[in-house]
Design a protein that fits this description.
There is one protein chain. By secondary structure, the protein is an alpha/beta fold. It folds into two domains: about 10-140 and about 245-365, D-Maltodextrin-Binding Protein, domain 2; about 145-240, D-Maltodextrin-Binding Protein, domain 2, CATH 3.40.190. It has helices at about 10-35, 70-80, 95-105, 120-125, 175-185, 205-210, 220-230, 255, 260-280, 285-295, 300-310, 320-335, 355-360, and strands at about 65-70, 90, 110-115, 130-135, 145-150, 165-170, 195, 215-220, 235-240, 250-255, 315. A six-stranded mixed beta sheet has the order 2-1-3-10-4-11, sandwiched between helices. The model is unreliable at about 1-45 (pLDDT under 50).
């Protein structure tokens, strides 16, 4: 049996970033307990969104949003767009399904950046939310977000080799859905692998692989480069899945969208979020420095690799195709996890359909 591999000592920047993230998670857990103790049903929306009522473009003075979208925060700051937001913003250093759903339940977050799975699971767990923006990647199969990390010394050379292996699985997150899609592609069932349920946050999967808690785990973005840099010399590898995994959403609780002032602020943020994505695409050198080097602590070579891997962003002005693809994902999850049938269209707030796409299309001239 291979000996556990100790993870490398994190840098000062990494320690500070992880400390901030853990502090946020602890705070959200406390707030959630307080909300439950006060008699509020966890996950239940307190207001109903009037989806046929237009969202105003005028944001009331004094409106504040708390937003979990760390990557866009850096882009807004670096581009100067942050100063143009017509409301006060508080950024929370968290994103992804488990953290954002917990924060929504605690009424500690108004808007968040996630992949395509959290809005589905939020609905299934009684937390009413709606999607207000969506982005994708051009040629997504060749520009994946996630790759399969293989633990050092584990004999997995092809995708089919995951049969019988210990595989990290995170229901309610994009990584979990990716695994289910991969099993379907390979003609395997969940019984053909050993699923190890571990939520994917920060570098948890990297450390689980290094310690041989699992043999295979989907890792993405900067964590691919960090995993190879930290453990590649010990035999760690990664495999491309050949599966589309590029959906990225902004979503908000119905209790927030039911507030006209906050809904107007979200509409404004969606516009500047799209302009920030355009700025990232148009300014790769500035983005390399601001995000990958200064914020994430990577060297320039790794940052350029990640920029190339991300490819070209796509923000549609119509959600018809997006909703159809989301329905396919819901159907797969329903079948594999015994969840109820759900119409994907009920998870999208169509009042925001054109906001991001229109801004992104014209963003190069603004």
């Amino acid at each position: 049996m291979p000996l556990p591999v100790s993870p490398p000592t994190p840098s000062r920047r990494e320690r500070e970033r992880l400390a901030r993230s853990r502090a946020v998670v602890v705070l959200l857990a406390v707030l959630a307990c307080v909300a439950t103790a006060c008699g509020t049903k966890s996950g239940a929306a307190t207001d109903t969104v009037a989806l046929d009522k237009p969202v105003s473009s005028d944001v009331p003075t004094g409106t504040t949003l708390t937003i979990g979208d760390p990557t866009t925060q850096v882009a807004l700051e670096a581009s100067g767009l942050l100063d143009k937001l017509p409301f006060h913003v508080k950024f929370a250093n968290l994103s992804g399904g488990p953290q954002t759903m917990e924060a929504f339940r605690a009424h500690a977050l108004d808007l968040a950046s996630v992949a395509d799975i959290p809005p589905i699971f939020a609905n299934w767990t009684g937390l009413k939310t709606h999607i207000v923006a969506a982005k994708y990647r051009k040629d997504p199969v060749h520009h994946p977000i996630y790759e399969l990390g293989v633990a050092p010394g584990v004999d997995v050379k092809t995708l089919a080799d995951i049969k019988g292996k210990k595989v990290a699985f995170s229901p309610g997150q994009a990584q979990g859905a990716l695994l289910l899609r991969l099993l379907k592609k390979l003609g395997l069932s969940q019984d053909d692998v050993q699923l190890v349920e571990i939520p994917s946050t920060e570098d948890v999967y990297n450390n689980a692989l290094a310690a041989h808690q699992v043999d295979v785990a989907p890792i993405g973005g900067v964590y691919i480069k960090r995993y190879l840099a930290d453990y590649g010399s010990k035999g760690a590898t990664v495999l491309k899945t050949g599966i589309r995994d590029d959906a990225g959403f902004l979503y908000a609780p119905d209790s927030v969208l039911a507030d006209p002032g906050k809904a107007a602020a979200i509409k404004a943020y969606v516009k500047y979020w799209a302009l920030a994505q355009r700025w990232i695409a148009d300014h790769p050198d500035e983005w390399l420095k601001a995000y990958y080097e200064d914020d994430q602590g990577l060297d320039a070579a790794d940052g350029r690799w990640l920029i190339r891997n991300a490819g070209t962003p796509v923000i549609p002005t119509s959600w018809t195709k997006a909703i159809a693809e989301h329905q396919e994902t819901i159907d797969l999850l329903s079948q594999e996890e015994g969840q109820p049938d759900t119409k994907a269209g009920t998870l999208w707030d169509m009042r925001f359909q054109h906001v991001a796409g229109d801004a992104f299309a014209s963003g190069g001239s603004r």
